[in-house]
Amino acid sequence: MADAKASPNLQALPTSLSSAQTLPSDAVLDALKMILLGAPLNEVLTTITRLIEAHDTGMLCSIFLLDEDGLHLQYGAAPNLPEAYRVATDGVRIGPNVGSCGTAAYLRQPVFVSDIASDPRWVKFRDFALQNGLRAAWSTPMMSHDGKVLGTFCMYYGEVRSPEPSEIQLIDYAGRIAGIAIERDRSQTALTRAFEQIEKSEAQFRHIVDAIPQMIAVLNPDGSVLYMNQTLLDYTGLTREEVMATDVRDRAFNPEDLARNRAAHPGSFSRHVPFQNEKRILRKDGQYRWFLAHYNPLLDDQGQVIRWYATGIDIDDRVQAEERTRNENLALREQIDRDSMFEDIVGSSEPLRRVLRQVSKVASSDSTVLILGETGTGKELIARAIHRRSNRAERAFIGVNCAAIPASLIASELFGHEKGAFTGATQRRLGRFESANGGTIFLDEVGDLPPDVQIALLRVLQEREIERVGSDRPIPVNVRVLSATHRDLNTLVAEDKFRQDLLYRLNVVPIEMPSLRERAADIPLLVDYFIDRFGKKAGKKFRRIDKRTLKLFQAYTWPGNIRELQNVIERAVILSDGDTFSVDETWLKRQGPQFAGPTARLNSALQRHEKEMIEAALAESAGRVSGPGGAAAKLGLPRPTLDAKIRRLGINKNRFKVKRSN
């Protein structure tokens, strides 16, 4: 590889990757983008191999380039492969049994050999590989945009190994990046050859340029369009006469990009050096796609620009991937900012163990799960536990609090929108469902969804496709849906505020989170956990817990559940002096109903009255076979609604068991 002075952009590339980092990431994409714009092909390919080698200790990588004859492979980069092995295999002819690379290029599909010593495809080169310490070889063909084999990317290991899914993805990603570099280099080479013919024949030059399957434009020194090749004309639907018009840029490029680049163009054209920019080009079917445009000057003997030559590379897939990554990162940052729960599930009580057993059973499936429970019980924590134990654990987990987003924006937030879909929609935006594609989306407080979004969500669950706001084009998505609510959805259905068919779809597997009152045995463990967590954050260490404080915690009803407990402990850690943890009991009393304001006291009285009525109905029905069903009829409530109220009010149904006759 050339030194830093020859290729300054290479300094931006990281030399190693932490075990937690996966490709692609914004930093790696930006670094590779810089390389692809400025460095020679051999430097780019060598950098890619070293970048991938840094991902795993003991891995060696190579890149083969397919000769123009389409039959032989020559090394493009293999900086760390043994020299003897490279010499023995350079120029190999592809075929159905020519190691991993020769076979992959011949079959046009990946070839993963976990043991070279026993694989029949390695008969010819087995001795060379084993003598040089190579035991496993995984190769994938690098393909051009029009389906031609460009070469192969290969990973070697010194021990018998089969690739993991993440490693297969890594091979594929590296091969794609290398393929982009190779195509760019070959296009630039073809373009340079074409330029050399310009003095011989303008007609011959145009014929050559038109034959190149890449967008090419020729510009005057001031940047005005002089010529577009046939590929660009076919893409835009413009005629050669329209190309010469002064408003051709207004017709071919996205107005936003045109305004953004307009100020920079005069300065770029005046510097007489290559430059590049990104823009969206209008396809003849009315759709825009992102392109990376490279501008290269043709200079005369005095260094003055005679012509500008521009080439365009389709980067729309990359831009969409970057936007999806940004959305995922934004969603993650938003989730972290508003996440007030603890990182791990703490507790050993039977109600909590029952929930965890349900999590273990349902995690491996793709069924929808509805998590029920009071606020502050850790419903999102359970959703994350399901995701981490599922087959989608390596993909995105996107959480959305449906109650925290204005009703007018929730559809756009979930499903995305097209440019111009509503006032302020200045560009297309991906929604949370597209960001979660392949992974899991968690819809917290799903009971707060407005009716129109409920219909759209039902379609997602039934058809596995979405439509962005402002578009009528369905987009397929592969997302597992987990949801949660503290509200009684059956009551909302009875009040025509929630669709019953949507409830059926969401409630395939219900999981009910116990309140902190129901898992009081976990309070000492939670107290220890939070004291340690917030103590470390505040730089304090507590050696013991005041006994009165622990008794106070266990006696308190915790209407805010674990979130309230966390808040009280964090406050106490900040205010406590010495090494004994204690809490001022008035903190809890002020939060209790006897110290609440008029509205809270009224709500408390209503709850007590409701509880007394339900207990009376249960007691009256206890001597009948109908049991709680009779109580529901007496109160004029659906049975699920009565059960929900019994849970919310903390009524012990065991006190009202049905008496059975002999």
Give short descriptive properties of this protein.
single chain, 662 residues, alpha/beta, 6-stranded antiparallel sheet, 5-stranded antiparallel sheet, 27 helices, 20 strands, 16% strand, disordered N terminus
Describe the structure.
The protein is α/β, with parallel strands linked by helices. It has 27 helices and 20 strands. The termini are far apart. The model is unreliable at 1-21, 336-343 and 590-603 (pLDDT under 50).
Q: Would you kindly provide a brief summary of this structure?
A:
The chain is an alpha/beta fold.
Give the helices and strands, then pairings.
Layout: H1 26-38, H2 41-53, E1 60-66, E2 72-77, H3 83-89, E3 92-93, H4 101-107, E4 111-113, H5 126-131, E5 136-143, E6 149-157, H6 165-196, H7 202-211, E7 215-219, E8 225-228, H8 230-236, H9 240-243, H10 248-252, H11 255-262, H12 264-270, E9 275-282, E10 288-299, E11 305-314, H13 316-338, H14 350-362, E12 369-372, H15 379-388, E13 397-401, H16 410-415, H17 432-435, E14 440-444, H18 451-463, E15 465-466, E16 475-476, E17 480-485, H19 489-494, H20 500-506, E18 509-512, H21 523-538, E19 544-545, H22 547-555, H23 561-575, E20 580-581, H24 585-591, H25 598-621, H26 628-635, H27 639-649
